[in-house]
Design a protein that fits this description.
292 residues; alpha/beta; Rossmann fold; seven-stranded mixed β-sheet; 9 helices; globular
C-alpha cells in the first residue's frame, strides 16, 4: 500500500449513523473491507450493519484497533471530525465530505503532515486496493479487478470509467486513489506517483487529470526530472471548457490562461507521457508500455 492505506486497514466510519455512512458502510463490508467501528455523538452502544458505534475515534481505536478513518460528516462539522481522527492517531484519513472551507482544510492537512498521517481528500471518492479486497470510499467496486496498474485521479467518475476499460482489457489494478476535487487536498499527484514508484506490485500508472490548477503540469515536471521508471499514461478531462467555467467541482476551474487542458496535455507529452483522447483509449496506450 506504501502508506496510502495501511497494510491491514481497520476502518472506523465517522458519521456511520447518517444515510451516507450507513449506505457506504454496507458496501464496504460487502466488498471485504474490515469496518471495525463507527462513531456518532450520543449513539454509543448502537450497531450499524453489525458494526459497533462509539462516541469517539479514540474509543474505536482502543476497543477495535482502528487505524483508518473515513469521514461522512457534513462540511460544518467535518474539520472537527478530521482533527479528532488526527488526535486519535489514525494512519490514514479519507475525507469524503466536500465544500469544507479551504482554511479548515489547510489547518488539518498541516496537522496531519506533522504527525505523518495521510489525508486523502477532501471531496474524494476514496481509495480501493482490489488485491486485498479493501475499499475505503464510495466507488462502485464491481468495475475494479486485482492487478498491477495504479490509478491516481482528480475525478471520481472518470476513475470508475477508466478502471472499467482497464479491467475489460485484463489490466487489473493494484491501488486506485482519488486525490480529491477541491483546490486544497492532502495527497497530490507527485506524492502518489512516488508511492507507486516504491510499490513493487505496481507496474504502470494511469494519471487522470482535469482542467483547473497546475497539479498536472507539476506532475509532468516531476516525471521528467526524476526520470520516472514506470510507464505513465494519462487522460485530461475538459478540453472544451472555456476560461472561468467551473466543471464538476471547485478545483476544476480555469482562470485566465492557466489550468487549461491544452497546457496540461502539452506538459505531459513533453515529459513523455502519452495522453489519451478518450477514456476508452487508456488500455491500448498502457499495454505496449508494460514490462510484465
Amino acid at each position: 500500500m506504501n502508506r496510502i492505506l495501511p497494510r491491514d486497514p481497520r476502518v472506523v466510519v465517522q458519521g456511520i449513523t447518517g444515510n451516507q455512512g450507513r449506505l457506504h458502510t454496507e458496501a464496504m463490508l460487502k466488498y471485504g473491507t474490515k469496518v471495525v467501528a463507527g462513531t456518532s455523538p450520543g449513539k454509543r452502544g448502537q450497531t450499524v450493519h453489525g458494526v459497533p458505534v462509539y462516541e469517539t475515534v479514540a474509543e474505536a481505536k482502543e476497543e477495535q484497533g482502528a487505524n483508518t478513518s473515513i469521514v461522512f460528516v457534513p462540511a460544518k462539522f467535518a474539520p472537527a471530525a478530521v482533527l479528532e481522527a488526527i488526535e486519535a492517531g489514525m494512519e490514514t484519513i479519507v475525507v469524503i465530505t466536500e465544500l469544507i472551507p479551504q482554511k479548515d482544510a489547510i489547518d488539518f492537512i498541516n496537522k496531519a503532515e506533522k504527525k505523518g498521517i495521510v489525508i486523502v481528500g477532501p471531496n474524494t471518492p476514496g481509495a480501493i486496493a482490489p488485491p486485498i479486497r479493501a475499499k475505503v470510499g464510495i466507488m462502485p467496486d464491481h468495475v475494479f479487478r486485482p492487478g498491477n496498474i495504479g490509478i491516481v485521479s482528480r475525478s471520481g467518475t472518470l476513475t470508475y470509467e477508466i478502471a472499467h476499460h482497464l479491467s475489460n482489457a485484463r489490466l487489473g489494478q493494484s491501488l486506485c486513489v482519488g486525490i480529491g476535487g477541491d483546490p486544497i487536498v492532502g495527497l497530490d499527484f507527485i506524492t502518489v506517483l512516488d508511492m507507486f514508484e516504491a510499490d513493487p506490485e505496481t507496474k504502470g500508472v494511469v494519471l487522470i487529470g482535469e482542467v483547473g490548477g497546475v497539479a498536472e503540469e507539476m506532475a509532468a515536471r516531476h516525471i521528467a526530472q526524476s526520470q520516472y521508471p514506470k510507464p505513465v499514461v494519462a487522460y485530461v478531462a475538459g478540453r472544451s471548457v472555456p476560461p472561468g467555467k467551473r466543471m464538476g467541482h471547485a478545483g476544476a476551474i480555469i482562470m485566465g490562461g492557466e489550468g487549461t487542458a491544452k497546457s496540461k496535455i502539452e506538459a505531459l507529452n513533453k515529459a513523455g507521457v502519452p495522453v489519451a483522447e478518450r477514456p476508452s483509449d487508456i488500455a491500448a496506450l498502457m499495454k505496449p508500455r508494460l514490462r510484465i
